[in-house]
Amino acid sequence: MSLSPAPILTPPAIGVLPPGPSRAPAPPPERPAATVKVLHVVNGEHYSGAERVQDLLGLTLPQFGYAVGFASLKPGKFGDHRNSIDSPLYEVPMRGRWDLGVARRLANVIRQEEYSLVHAHTPRSLLVSYLASRLAGVPLVYHVHSPASRDSTRRLANWANHWVERGCANRADRLLTVSPTLTEHMRRMGVSPDKLHCVLNGVPRLPEEVARRRRQPIAPFNVAMIALFRPRKGVEVLLDALAALRARELDVRLEAIGPFETPEYEQQVRARVKKLGLEEHVHWSGFTDDVNAALAGVDALALPSLFGEGLPMVVLEAMAAGLPVVATRCEGTTEAILHRETGFIVEPGSVNQLADALEELFNGDTDYPRMALAARERHADHFSTEAMARSVAGVYDGLLRSRG
Ligand SMILES: CC(=O)N[C@H]1[C@@H](OP(=O)(O)OP(=O)(O)OC[C@H]2O[C@@H](n3ccc(=O)[nH]c3=O)[C@H](O)[C@@H]2O)O[C@H](CO)[C@@H](O)[C@@H]1O
Ligand SMILES: O=P([O-])([O-])O[C@@H]1[C@@H](O)[C@H](O)[C@@H](O)[C@H](O)[C@@H]1O
After folding, report:
1. What is the DSSP code (8-state) at residue 10?
2. pTM of the model
3. 215-219: long-range contacts at Cβ-Cβ below 8 A with a sequence spacing of 24 or more?
4. Range with lowest mean pLDDT among 151-155, 236-240, 311-315
5. What are the structural domains of the chain?
6. What's the 361 CA to ligand 2 centre distance in angstroms?
7. Which spans does this entry mark as compositional bias, Pro residues (predicted)?
């Protein structure tokens, strides 16, 4: 295999992205397809942001010389919903968070199937992969998708994940962060800067008929929120904003797409919808495999996260579909959205600011078609799947070359 020189990925300053590549289609890769095998170790119980990244890498890395396999520590929805079905998926379930015996089984998979690299995606998978990679004698890459200490409202899980990450991060051979904010976060955690590479998340470009030129929408205005609904995503704030907007006689409705993390949380949120009198104006679609189809039918995306984002895939997917995004000032989100150019950034938890931004987007005060086009162009310039996969492959290349 011929290895191209590894790009030097100096993390840019917060909020400033490196210059985007031209919007012209990328030239075809020069190397032969899929010559090195890399095993991605994933949790696997959900199909959400980190899993979308893994899935897209499974589909795209072969173009850059790497064949992807997956090992799932919590087999579940990733196996059911992934698109990268040509990649093998090994189920190596853990009996509990500290069932580290699983590392031996993982090391056996690495040796028997001749994987040259292990790539882990969560603190849990980092710990297991670290042990397995050392047993099998292969290098380890760790992908940081969100700040582990602020990942959920479960304080004990945050604490455990944070300390596992802190203990293992410097033992990985390379670390990938999905946004400059996360690079800075890991640097502050003491990770050696020469191991850190910022690889911006990316999502596919959409065909013209899906990401069509959008006109100024007319009422009723349809706002989508797409998520694995969990407390940190802040849907309550969006529901309150929706009620405020309806009180201002703006005809806005919400298309809520995605599963709830727990039945208890679903009950809680549905009770709030009822209390606010929004039952007719909120539609829950549950999980969909076709997010792009859902985005084609709405006028904007809202992401009211309260804390703990990396670089949310739903924001990039909406931009690719030519949709303005209204989201909160929450870690990497502000690196994707340009305030008043591709969408609006508001403060987390502020019902009024969220309502005002949506009102401004729909009441004609904003040049909606220009904003929609700017969002689509920004996606093409900075957040394509190919750019993400090319950067990941560049990090693999450099790592393998450094080990001879
Ligand atoms: C806890 C955690 O690790 N959070 C991170 C996770 O995103 P997190 O899971 O929080 O959410 P994202 O918005 O990034 O991604 C959700 C993904 O699920 C998909 N979807 C959702 C609903 C549905 O019905 N069908 C469907 O396919 C969406 O299209 C999207 O691709 O990875 C992101 C990508 O690195 C990071 O920015 C987040 O900080
Ligand atoms: O590894 P673990 O801590 O049990 O579980 C993780 C959660 O803490 C995290 O919130 C979620 O995003 C991951 O997909 C995974 O489910």
Report:
1. P
2. 0.93
3. 215/368, 215/369, 216/364, 216/368, 216/369, 217/299, 217/362, 217/368, 219/250, 219/251, 219/362
4. 151-155
5. 36-202+384-402 (3.40.50.2000), 221-382 (3.40.50.2000)
6. 35
7. 18-31
Q: What angle do CA 234, 235, 239 make, to 5 degrees?
A: 130
Mean pLDDT estimate for the chain: 92
Sign of CA dihedral 29, 35, 41, 46: positive
Tell me the pLDDT tens digit for each residue of 321-379. 999 999 999 989 999 999 999 999 999 999 999 999 999 999 999 999 999 999 999 99
Residues in the chain, total: 404
Pick from 158, 128, 157: which is nearest to 140 by CA? Answer: 128
345: its two tokens: 């950034």
Choose the residue to mutate in 40, 48, 54, 119 for probing ligand 1, maximizing ligand atoms within 8 Å of C-beta: 48
Contact at 8 Å (CB) between 70 and 90?
A: yes
Determine whether the shortest distance from the Cβ of 226 to ligand 1 is under 6 A. yes
The span from the CA of 109 to the CA of 92, in Å, is 9
4 class by beta-carbon count within 10 Å (0-12 exposed, 13-18 middle, 19+ buried): middle
Other C-beta atoms closer than 10 Å to the C-beta of 12 total: 16
Measured CA angle at 135 (ends 388, 177), to 5 deg: 20
What amino acid occupies position 374? A
Q: State if residue 288 touches ligand 1 by the CB under 6 angstroms criterion.
A: yes
On the question of pLDDT at 218 being above 80, the answer is yes
Strand order in the sheet with 66-72: 89-91, 66-72, 36-42, 117-120, 140-144, 174-177, 196-198
CA dist 71 and 89 (Å) reads 6
Q: What is the DSSP letter of 194?
A: G
Strand-pairing partners, residue 78, are none
CA separation for the pair 186, 180 (Å, rounded): 10
Residue 81 CA, ligand 1 centroid: distance in Å: 13
Nearest C-alpha neighbor of 331 from the set 150, 196, 192:
150
Question: In this predicted structure, what is the pLDDT of residue 17?
Answer: 56
Strands 196-198 and 117-120: unpaired
Q: What are phi and psi of 134, to 5 degrees?
A: -70, -40
